[in-house]
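Re: export button greyed out
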Amino acid sequence: MSDGGGPPTIVSIAERAGVSIASVSRVLNGVGARPDTVRKVERAAAELGYVPNAVAQSLKGGRTKQLTFAMQDIGNPVYVAMVREIQAVARAAGYRLLLHSTDAVIEDELAVVRSLGDRTSDGLILCPIRITPEHIEVLSQAAGPVVVIGSLPGDVQVDAVQADSVAGARLAVQHLAETGRRRIALINGPLDTVPGHNRRQGYLKALADLGLPHHPDAERATEFGLAAGRTAAHQLLDEHPDLDAFFCANDQLALGASQAVHERGLRIPEDIAVAGMDDSDLAQAAWPPLTSVDLGSVERGRLAARMLLDRLGGADLEATRARRTTAVPRLVVRGSTDPAAPAAPATAHGTGTGSGTGASA
Amino acid sequence: MSDGGGPPTIVSIAERAGVSIASVSRVLNGVGARPDTVRKVERAAAELGYVPNAVAQSLKGGRTKQLTFAMQDIGNPVYVAMVREIQAVARAAGYRLLLHSTDAVIEDELAVVRSLGDRTSDGLILCPIRITPEHIEVLSQAAGPVVVIGSLPGDVQVDAVQADSVAGARLAVQHLAETGRRRIALINGPLDTVPGHNRRQGYLKALADLGLPHHPDAERATEFGLAAGRTAAHQLLDEHPDLDAFFCANDQLALGASQAVHERGLRIPEDIAVAGMDDSDLAQAAWPPLTSVDLGSVERGRLAARMLLDRLGGADLEATRARRTTAVPRLVVRGSTDPAAPAAPATAHGTGTGSGTGASA
DNA sequence: GCAGTATCTGTAAACGTTTTCAGCTCGCTG
DNA sequence: CAGCGAGCTGAAAACGTTTACAGATACTGC
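Workaround output, generated via the alternate export path:
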């Protein structure tokens, strides 16, 4: 049988089955055909081990059945949670997922949006760390549907799923106050990021609501990361030995701070309480388990994916204007603030901290 | 200004610039053209906001500039490390990365390999949890280059990057013995997985080497996960109150076990030492920081990506037979086994536990 | 100014599929 | 048995690009 060279195509099948390529295509797509023809084509296809060329199908059909998710660094547990959820939704709808790390480089983020024009994927979920005027401009003239995970000015016509980190931060600080803490320091990431800014706002509001004094020097804002959290906590404890709680703008900062506390021989939560945000897998893996605010990473991932698929499958493409959804934050109390918190985590979300092994060998 | 409908193509550019589509293509690809022509084309392209259709380019060129990475669940920190590294290498070579979670479903893993035939991506990095005869069959007749991260029988003509978890496990157990531990329990994942099997072998070998007795009932093998580790540790401590160390087949098990130890009011490492494997981000975020064996996830990711790119760009496509590489395991001693271990982690690998925030809002 | 050459340009085919359109075959009805 | 319509089928166009080929133009050296 003439292998022709290269993988089998509908042409090879057509030759082998003695029919036209149109018939082959129809049979393979389940469109009407005579039983006789169906049999011949299916037989030939099976014998040749035919697999349809998705690229050609994409070119013809104008859709690639691929979605892109762009965030700054897959290393962050929050993005991992989102990726997992987005992938699940996408796959269920027959879409593949393309991953793009921007390393928080603005120009790279913009490039991702522009690259929608190359038709490589049908839609984009973008998780920007900052929103600049250029973002807005590029987003509003994107070549395909985009859903932003994050806050967007109200008049921008782009779908968005937001977290309410102001409210989330307030929840955490309120909880710390309710459990008797009065001198609550803030360990934060860069203030010129949306989360850095908003989480601080929540902290300030909560202090004000509670009538607690705000000491500007009981705040640290450097990076979002373990080492930064540890350093900040040590500094704060040096300067303010009377602190009784750390509110940290994410779980990684919180774990870093916890390390510093432990290193000084202090106890969590008896001497110092620690609370984080994001309720990532880290929180329940820590000791003591970390009180954290679930900002709905999983839910936001799912919603964003759904919204995007809506735009894609939807008959009313232009019909609906930009939609906005906000995930409601939820406080998860664990041992780092409350010694009485149940030891066994109530298996927060689904699969927990992943069940697999670390790769064969 | 005939917008024609649909996004700009080389045809629209050709019309607007008054040249043929061939000239447009040449200019855009930097092949020789008269300065005059270049100017006209570039002008028209810019005015129309032209972005080349990557799908059409793929169809013509036969390569998509996409790579696929398939593993069971992105939730596992080890895979996250690999993804990050693979993405970095891929992107540097101008490739996009397609992510595929198989949920450890064998049939799904096989489907991924077969789907190489649809030309959606130019190559595949596969991280299987088990290797079945079907794997071997499907792999050896894959429609494109594949690199497996994991162990493969020697006669299978497929590139592979392996970890040496037998040696790795021995390192950890030896270390525990050297620091005075004698009753070392094993907390493992399923024995019918490659890692589960191999890590146990390493444990057994180390015990034998060291002349330590092996108590079959000081082993637990259930799942690879936090909860499983916690449960197993509690059971073991109930049955063998005299244990002085837990060797765990991955970091998640180890952190679960640590929780159990803490819950019983025992101290780590004074009363019980705990060691894990994989040296994931979790290990340095924990308290006390977790002694773990770095099986080279980052390195394996990088190597796998490089090998794949070699196959793709390589002139000598068929020239080289299957290549095999093994990453050398490395013990990272931290506070969970050695109270004197340096508190500040020597910033194990590059970016550490991720530096980003938890997504805007 | 002319032959010869080097450079550039346009036409057309190709990549592998889906889909329109017209034509064909077949079975049915009268 | 003629006529009709339903149902299949095949030829061809289309998706947007790259590229071989041949034809056109501009240059060089005399």
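The CA atoms of residues 244 and 271 of chain B lie 6 Å apart. The button fix ships in the next patch.
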